[in-house]
Amino acid sequence: MASRILPPGLGSNPDSRLAARLAACREQGRPALVGYLPAGFPTVEESVEAAVALGRNGADVIEIGIPYSDPVMDGPVIQHATTTALANGFRVADVFRVVRAVAERTDAVPVVMTYWNPVLQMGVDTFAERLAEAGGAGIITPDLIPDEAAEWFAASQAHGLDRVFLAAPSSSRERLDLVAKAASGFVYAVSVMGVTGARDAVSDVAEQLVADTRAAGAQHVCVGLGVSRRAHVEEIGAYADGVIVGTALVKALADGGPEAVGALARELAGLA
């Protein structure tokens, strides 16, 4: 199936900063800490400072989310944040300000996480060009599957960006094979079925999903959904290349501003 869907010559990104950072973390004997924050929450300026605080306090990769009016994958904490950002005047172009700040003021690798419609509205190649110019490394696309990504394949290759697709516990071996071949940088393994949100325990299916995704050919696999504390990072880090934290960081930002984001990042990274 993969050969029928993927364009000829599509391969991994040889200049992938994501892959390089994950490999460096692996050499250090630790998982990469991947943190998510939405652009524009509660304001664009505060989201810039929060992302910088995250990058200066242990995060290796920072996912900058684009607020969206119909966030089907997001739980209540992130939904509230993105709704607030939109109400406060966030525009899609603002995401590049946040990405640029991370790229210029920290050594973290910035990527954008977005539903696909905002990219389509701007124009896929235009969005990719602006992201690359701002110092972004790629896009995580929760609602874009490889079967429908022809335009993104072309734009990502033209601008040297990584394509991060999702794998879920429900994914068939055939689907994992396609995702592994289509992705670059890493594959985002969703550890639970459902929306995002901090949980007391991480699903025990995550380890098997990582193993299956690697067996399908993925070079790097990061696990997200449900991670909220250092114990989760250590548990997942025993078998995954990176650990993705979102809701806990957004809640910290809502409750205590950029300083609280930095403090939680240090705790998650084992630096506190």
Automatic annotation (TrEMBL):
Keywords: Amino-acid biosynthesis, Aromatic amino acid biosynthesis, Lyase, Tryptophan biosynthesis. Its EC number is 4.2.1.20. The keyword Lyase applies. The keyword Metal-binding does not apply. Pathway: Amino-acid biosynthesis; L-tryptophan biosynthesis; L-tryptophan from chorismate: step 5/5. Gene3D superfamilies: Aldolase class I. It comes from the Bacteria. The active site is at E63 (proton acceptor), D74 (proton acceptor). It catalyses: (1S,2R)-1-C-(indol-3-yl)glycerol 3-phosphate + L-serine = D-glyceraldehyde 3-phosphate + L-tryptophan + H2O. GO terms for molecular function: tryptophan synthase activity. Tetramer of two alpha and two beta chains. The alpha subunit is responsible for the aldol cleavage of indoleglycerol phosphate to indole and glyceraldehyde 3-phosphate. This is Tryptophan synthase alpha chain.
